[in-house]
Design a protein that fits this description.
Blueprint (H helix, E strand, L loop, with lengths): L29 H8 L5 E6 L2 E7 L2 E4 L2 E2 L7 E7 L5 E6 L29 E3 L1 H4 L5 H18 L11 E4 L4 E4 L5 E2 L4 E9 L5 E5 L11 E4 L6 H13 L3 E12 L4 E10 L13 E5 L1 H10 L10 H10 L8
Parallel strand pairs: 1-6, 11-15
Antiparallel strand pairs: 1-2, 1-4, 2-3, 2-7, 5-6, 8-9, 9-10, 11-12, 11-13, 12-16, 14-15
Length: 325
Amino acid sequence: MEITTQEGLLGPLLLARSAIDRSAALRGDAEWFERTWTDGASRVVVVDDGQALIRRNGDGAALVLLPTADAPEGERYLLGVDAEGIAYFAVSAPLTGVAHDDSFNRIVAPLAPSALREGEPVAAGLRQVGPLLGDLDAGLLVYAVALEAWHSSHEFCPRCGSRTEVRAGGHVRVCLQDGSQHFPRVDPAVIMLVHDDADRCLLARGPQWPEGRLSVLAGFVEPGESLEHAVAREVIEEVGVRVVDPRYLGSQPWPFPRSLMLGFFARAVSTELVLDLEEIAEARWFSRAELLAALESGEVRLPSEVSIARRLIETWYGGPLTGDW
């Protein structure tokens, strides 16, 4: 499925790709589900705490997709059906016999293809291999990781505390005590590149990041709040800058554990920085020449290509940049 939602954004959003039909109408068809599960053409991605088996594929990487007969025991989630009619499932189960990349829960640079050995699968997450995967595999892994993260925190009913069980191909959990249904949720978050009338952009870093690791501002949308108001509120709360004219550019799932990042440009009408030091350790205005010089010297490093933040910065700059986290 090819859908363009980021008109004007420079480059693809690497975690917003997909090549399957999510097949929502089939989720409640138990007979179809069981029949398709036993179909020799169906394939499974095993996901374990946000990681899956990855192998080298030429200059990129590919998911290790198992026949359903070889899949381990675990919760099953229907991911969808591709144009050729092949069904894809995720199974939440431990990955055994491979080394895990324990850096998954930290901000890390993507792996280079050379880091993956031919024919030797490794366990890795989206941050490491997202840019290396093709459209089908990227979409499958994002979907599987997001579902696994939600299910792992909803084993019990939020209303009565009783155990819940998976239904509808992994897209509903039903309380065994009161029958209430609970559906996977995402947390909307705005992420915005702020620019001023002098054609500078504002980059910042959180206290948990090392010096030199800069990105754009971001924050969660609050209850009862529009996206545009969230953009303005987050910017003034974090750096004391007032912005107007928020312009939407695109969105990308960010399943760490369940965010949807909604990307904006916003124009600053004040430029004095007053930092919320609990959220922002450093913030700086950059012209294009200043940003390029800081990247070339190694003084500044940008978010990786897997993030919408990188696309926002490169769109403002007008071309590709180097200097990943």
